[in-house]
Amino acid sequence: MTIETEPCPSCMRDMAIPPGYIDEIVAAKRKTGVDLAKDGVYEGRLESCRACDMCVGGIMCSMCGCFIQFRALGRDAYCPHPSGDNWKAGASPDQPGGEA
Ligand code: SF4
To answer: The pTM is what?
Structure first.
């Protein structure tokens, strides 16, 4: 079976990300039972990231170098944007880092 790949925005020449790879890692992390961001908070953070001027290729935060799907997953994670936390406006106030 051939796996089609997409280039990684931080290293276009040599690395590729198989389709679904990041989603599989996120799903596996959720199955561990670790206390992560709730689904609504997570989706709100991703929405903010995808609209952010620091987001590269719709998947990577250029401030921290993380895939946004991983950055947004942490329950206590925060947005490192130099102008202020972009996640706070759309996040739930019931989690740290999600204050309105
Ligand atoms: S600076 Fe914040 S909103 Fe922008 S991509 Fe990074 S984590 Fe997401």
So the answer is: 0.79
